[in-house]
Write a structure and sequence with these properties.
Blueprint (H helix, E strand, L loop, with lengths): L1 H35 L4 H8 L4 E2 L1 H10 L9 H8 L7 E2 H15 L1
Helix pairs in contact: 3-4
Length: 107
């Protein structure tokens, strides 16, 4: 009986975590769309990535300025999700591809 209850609690926690991840992904997309709206995205990227690449510290500043909630501000995971060449940092072309896909999702 104890094992059954422990398994149910773990399963419940897993479902909660999965729900949080999906909600945070939506929040990040929406906040980034709003933050970039009406701005030159390449110039905005250059502000946060003066070296030409955005690492997790720079992504954290970007997410903070975009008003992403503390609960959903996961810079390493955001980079991992958008990093097309798996070098653990973002180049402009990777960010541009992500913003284009965000716009496509609205259609």
């Amino acid at each position: 009986m104890k094992i059954y209850l422990l398994s149910r609690k773990r399963l419940f926690l897993l479902f909660i975590l999965i729900g949080i991840v999906y909600c945070c992904e939506d929040e990040i997309k929406e906040k980034l769309k709003l933050f970039g709206k009406g701005k030159n995205l390449k110039e905005l990227f250059a502000k946060y990535a003066p070296s030409g690449f955005m690492d997790s510290d720079e992504m954290d500043k970007f997410l903070l300025d975009a008003d992403v909630s503390d609960w959903c501000r996961w810079p390493t995971i955001v980079i991992e999700k958008l990093d097309l060449d798996n070098d653990e940092k973002l180049a402009w072309d990777e960010v541009e591809t992500a913003f284009k896909s965000f716009r496509h999702e609205e259609l």
